Amino acid sequence: MRGVESTTVLHELDEHGVVTLTLNRPGRNNAWTRELEGALHDLLEQASTSPDVRAIVITGAGRSFCPGLDSEELDRVSQDGQAMDQSGRRRLTLPTYVPKPVVCAVNGACAGLGLILALMSDVRFAAHDAKITTAFVRRGLPAEEASAWMQNRIVGHARSIDLLMSGRVILGDEAASIGLVHASYEREALVGRALDYARDLADNCSPRAMAAVKRQVYLDWNRALEESRRDARRLVGALREDSKDFREGVRSFVERRAPQFEPLSRPIDLDPSAEESRP
Q: How far apart (Å, rounded) are the C-alpha atoms in residues 124 and 113?
């Protein structure tokens, strides 16, 4: 993968096909800027189309993940008549549309836009002592960018309204106990655990099947049981017909060896209805 030339978001691809994207503004605790956002989204788009990439890990440099919008920009947009420039921006839900697994390693402070990035990732791990907060109401704002929609589905109504309405800080351990993150680890071990998880996906799971499952999960939130069943049957037929992965998955299991699944190169499609016509 030939990534964007950026010092704001670093990228590193390993031999398993896992690319690590590191938010890299440690002097500002990796606070969010338009430059960081653009570089991150460019790299996610490149990872989506690169056949060399099978899974993505996102983390932060230093002891912070991302505490939200940079304080200087936050102060500016809070003034009368000021607003963030929206030209050329992509939606912050972009990670949910990437047809490859996105794993977030929350290594430290995580709030606002940083929390939105974590929520939009498929799998989340956190350091035991990572400080996590929605923060919106404490800045006089409602939940931004579909964060309420996503958090409700991750932790449920009761916990979500507590976190969103109070804006209280929780640590990684509590986040794991309520399901906001999948697990919490010692800070020093966190990225290694996230990479181990992503490498297992990259080495042993069909890229096409993972892409299909990811879109199934999001589409099924708004579908009836029977509609979900019919679509699952369609997807099974499509994957059997259009991919060698089913045969390879079965043969590798029978032969007790690692599978050799075909790589996936697919642009991000922001129209989820398009998934109805592809595996």
A: 15
Other residues' Cβ atoms within 10 Å of the Cβ of residue 125: 28
Q: In angstroms, how far is CA 29 from the centroid of its own chain?
A: 20
**Cβ–Cβ contacts within 10 Å for residue 89, how many?**
12
Please report, as a single letter, which amino acid is at residue 40. L
> Quick one: fold of 206-277?
Lyase 2-enoyl-coa Hydratase; Chain  A, domain 2 (1.10.12)
Per-residue pLDDT of the chain (279 residues), as tens digits, is 665 678 999 999 999 999 999 999 999 999 999 999 999 999 999 999 999 999 999 999 999 999 998 866 766 666 655 566 667 789 999 999 999 999 999 999 999 999 999 999 999 999 999 999 999 998 888 999 999 999 999 999 999 999 999 999 999 999 999 999 999 999 999 999 999 999 999 999 999 999 999 999 999 988 999 999 998 999 888 888 777 888 889 889 999 999 999 999 999 988 755 544 455
Where are the domains positioned within the chain?
A: 9-202, 206-277
CA distance 277 to 243: 15
DSSP 31-65: -B-HHHHHHHHHHHHHHHH-TT-SEEEEEESTTEE
Kindly report the length of the chain: 279
Asked whether 110 and 67 are in contact (CB, 8 A), the reply is yes
Query: Quick check: 172 and 132 in contact, CB under 8 A?
Result: yes
Cα–Cα distance measured from residue 129 to residue 146, given in angstroms and rounded to the nearest whole number: 26
Whether the CB-CB separation of 110 and 131 falls below 8 Å is answered with yes
Amino acid, single-letter form, for residue 172? G
Q: What are phi and psi of 70, to 5 degrees?
A: -50, 135
Superfamily for domain range 9-202 = 2-enoyl-CoA Hydratase; Chain A, domain 1 (3.90.226.10)
